[in-house]
Amino acid sequence: MNANNQIIVALDCDSRAAAEDIVDRLGDECRLYKVGLELLTVAGPDFVKLLVARGKEVFLDLKLFEIPNSVAGAVRAAGALGVSMVTVHGMGGLGIMTAAVDAARAFPGLRILALTVVTSMTDGDLADIGVSGSTEEQVVRLARLAGKAGCHGVVASPREVAALRSALGADALIVTPGVTLPGDGSPGEHARAGTPRAAVVAGASHVVVGRTVTRAADPAATFRLVRTSLTAGCWS
């Protein structure tokens, strides 16, 4: 896989102007962008349309967790915007994930990804909400359920990628947030972080890179560093 097609830049911005500035500075270097709840709330769906119109692919990270009918409606709305990927929460169970997959069928380019366990959570956090076992066990459990529902892939931390690739096979998408370049220091809110190369070597199809790129003095140069770090570690 071309390394350019594996890197998703997270536009976790508090204004449309800030997000547009990053996209402008990255130019043709980046094709894939993540739009999450903060940016969607502040900038609205028109910003997603702008990205699509500029030839970018959009990973709309909604983490949908609602009744199946509402999830299906949100997926159809996302498909109409032209996004490439949208997330549904694996904890919603088969009914919610199946509704999302069924709604996406009308949009051939739309992929449904199941969020497993957010990268800020630890084993202790899972215990707090009554989930026994480790984060990796829960991630794999939800990933298998997502596969049963027909999801195209999952979202999980770099630390679970190898187990997921073994469980899901070669074709599933595995999208990994919580990646930073070596030497970047604190991983921020990610309790289960890793490097982009380690994630891809383990079998990730995509890595999501946020502040490492967006807060760099030269985002395009840093993006190229991330891309270079993947080149020697691409999986096939």
From TrEMBL:
Residues given in the record as substrate binding sites: 12, 34, 119, 210-211
Name listed for the protein in its UniProt record: Orotidine 5'-phosphate decarboxylase
Organism the protein comes from: Streptomyces fodineus
Keyword Cytoplasm annotated: no
PANTHER family in the record: OROTIDINE 5'-PHOSPHATE DECARBOXYLASE
Domain Orotidine 5'-phosphate decarboxylase per the UniProt entry, residue ranges: 6-226
Keyword Amino-acid biosynthesis belongs to the record: no
GO biological process, one term: 'de novo' UMP biosynthetic process
Reaction catalysis annotation: orotidine 5'-phosphate + H(+) = UMP + CO2
GO cellular component: cytosol
Molecular function terms, GO-annotated: orotidine-5'-phosphate decarboxylase activity
The protein's Enzyme Commission number: 4.1.1.23
NCBIfam families listed in its UniProt record: PRK00230.1 (NF001273), pyrF (TIGR01740)
Subunit structure: Homodimer.
Class of enzymatic activity (EC top level): lyase
The entry's keywords: Decarboxylase, Lyase, Pyrimidine biosynthesis
Record HAMAP family: OMPdecase_type1_B (MF_01200_B)
Function of the molecule: Catalyzes the decarboxylation of orotidine 5'-monophosphate (OMP) to uridine 5'-monophosphate (UMP).
Pathway info: Pyrimidine metabolism; UMP biosynthesis via de novo pathway; UMP from orotate: step 2/2
Annotated family: Belongs to the OMP decarboxylase family. Type 1 subfamily.
Active-site residues per Swiss-Prot or TrEMBL entry: 63 (proton donor)
Pfam families in alphabetical order: OMPdecase (PF00215)
